[in-house]
Amino acid sequence: MTTVIKTENLRKEFGKYAAVKGLTLQVEQGEVFGFLGPNGAGKTTSIKMLLGLVTPTSGTGSLLGAPLGDRTALARIGFLPEHFRFQEWLTAHEFLQLHGELLGMDSRNLNLRRDELLEQVGLSDFRYKQLRTFSKGMLQRVGLAQALLNRPALVFLDEPTSGLDPVGRRLVRDIIHELRAQGTSVFLNSHLLSEIEVTCNRVKRSGSSPA
Ligand SMILES: Nc1ncnc2c1ncn2[C@@H]1O[C@H](COP(=O)(O)OP(=O)(O)O)[C@@H](O)[C@H]1O
Ligand SMILES: [Mg+2]
User: For the segment 36-92, what is each residue's pLDDT rounded down to a tens digit?
Assistant: First the structure.
């Protein structure tokens, strides 16, 4: 089995406050890994350390076999942030176009993938609408499409259903099941036990001692 995430005693202090106290975990290729904990448990900070967006105070880790922050590894992952701010003056179509270009996708592949994902997240009919007209749930769905554009080997989803109604939650759940069937690894942050229960095949509690 290939290990896609490995951390050893990752710790993050903000001033005197330890937001993450020694996180040790390992995620294998194809796993849907649920990272469960109440608000403030350190889940988002943990993801940000894994993505090289927050520098750990101490500890080490690797992502797709490379040290944390490695750009080649980051180009192979997808990320839906918890508190996203998208370019709201763009249409959904333009937004995915921009992110595909930033990922260096060739135009034919990008066109196909963009259309496929807009369909999958149920936004085909809204593709030429500006994101500023979207509801929170629609933004979350276009953000999910963005996270999957490059067919990532590993996807980070930080509270992906927080703004969604039951139909939207179902859609996200179906997409996660599909990713799992394709062998894509998923790291899912959630404070909802029920969400983790129905989608994940392994769970770790955020804030718990090393396991
Ligand atoms: N940039 C920051 N500066 C200071 N404190 C922070 C910062 N980011 C997070 N924290 C604190 O770290 C703790 C964990 O936050 P977070 O990782 O967002 O938790 P979760 O995602 O589990 O809700 C919280 O108490 C939060 O206030
Ligand atoms: Mg969070």
Answer: 999 999 999 999 999 999 999 999 999 999 999 999 999 999 999 999 999 999 999
- In the reported structure, the alpha carbon of residue 43 is separated from the centroid of ligand 1 by a whole-number distance in angstroms of 8
- Residues with Cβ within 5 Å of ion ligand 2? 43-44, 82
* Edge-to-edge strands, sheet with 32-36: 77-80, 154-158, 185-190, 32-36, 202-205
CB-hemisphere CA count at 13 Å for 94? 11
Please identify which residue in the block is written with the tokens 């769970």. 203
**What pTM value is reported for the model?**
0.94
| Token digits of residue 176 | 């996660």
Is the distance from CB of 14 to CB of 4 less than 8 angstroms? no
SS3 content of the chain, % helix, strand, coil (to 5): 40, 25, 35
Which residue owns the Cα nearest ligand 1 atom 11?
19
Q: Which residue, 153, 162, 147, is CA-closest to 195? A: 162
pLDDT digits (tens, 9 = 90+) for 146-168: 999 999 999 999 999 987 888 88
